[in-house]
Amino acid sequence: MQRIIIDLARLDVNIEDEVRAMILLCLLPFSYEHLVSTLRYRKETIKVDEITAALLAHNQRKQNAGESSHGDSLYVKGNQDFGRNSEKEGSGKRNSRSKSRGRKTTHCYKCKESGHMKRDCPKLKKQADEKRDGSCKSGDMVQNDDSNFSNCDMLFVSTNQYVDAWILDSRCSYHIAPNRESFPSYRPGNSGSIYLGDDRCCNIASVGDVRIKMYDGTVRTLSDVRHIQDLKKNLITLGTLHKNGFIPKADEDRETIRIVKGALTVMKGKITTGNIYKLLGSTVVGGVHPIDSCDDNTKFWHMCLGHLSERLMIELHKRNLLHGVKSCKLDFCKFCVLGKKTKVSFTTGKHKTEGILHYVHSDVWGSTKEQ
């Protein structure tokens, strides 16, 4: 479920905390029905953190009490010969107690042996212990195909807070990303190796660029990111940013760090649990981006035609009149902005004449005296 929510967040699909909590409750097994009812109707609003804490406490309480996830079964066994014995023996033996069948007559439906029931079968208990040990090692729940019920319901609650997050690190040497999907441009090949703090060597699969959507909605490209599959976290090195002219600054609240260049704030990080600065942003995965060709003559024709507008160039391109033009996409042209003149239209004149030569031209000024 956590993976689905992360993939939806990459697509800018935000799921409210209450909806995530309801999805988590619906995914719980049937043995948690009473706990689900309690959590659902206890408050008007529910949160994922509250459900996670309640599930962990409930699971820990069951482990301490030594309870199994399946409840104890109640077996009620009647005397099948009661009616026949009462008819044959009459009223003289009504008060006599019927003899229960001995332990040896019971039959186990698991191992097909007599002397015990299925719930007390030693083979079934041995298999349950082996499967429980295997589940703890591999993290998977093993189900017995011979039985009609699962031996135990195992609940795993994971809090992967930094699966898709970027960590601002001052000790690492390179920008690092473990996921191949984070690289829109990928150059495979052996790019060397790095050493971790425990002297463990990790190979660099490739070097590429990663696009990150920042806190303000701006999408920025992080260059020269190393793809290392052995690591689990996305790392941004502050040393490389500082070398390229980006300066980290801490705010007065001591909880936010800003990466600035001049007066521009490029990145922001928020301190989290464990004194880790997490980047306020997410990786942009996928998407179709236009490819700009070097042979596109859009700018050339724009200047030759006297800085023609983009709308008119598209119209000429539809008629196949512009050779070498592919996109008709114009970049910012400062000459168009600085040299543009606005044409002011004149008002329509009103004439009262009805025929030709109805205008009378006269010398309004009259004669003047020379001084």
Automatic annotation (TrEMBL):
InterPro entries: GAG-pre-integrase_dom, PolX-like_BBD, Znf_CCHC, Znf_CCHC_sf. Keywords: Metal-binding, Zinc, Zinc-finger. Residues 62-107 are annotated as: Disordered. Residues 108-123 form the CCHC-type domain. GO terms for molecular function: nucleic acid binding; zinc ion binding. Residues 94-107 have a biased composition (Basic residues). SUPFAM superfamilies: Retrovirus zinc finger-like domains. It comes from the Eukaryota. PANTHER family: OS08G0421700 PROTEIN, PBF68 PROTEIN. This is Retrovirus-related Pol polyprotein from transposon TNT 1-94. It comes from Sesamum radiatum (Black benniseed).
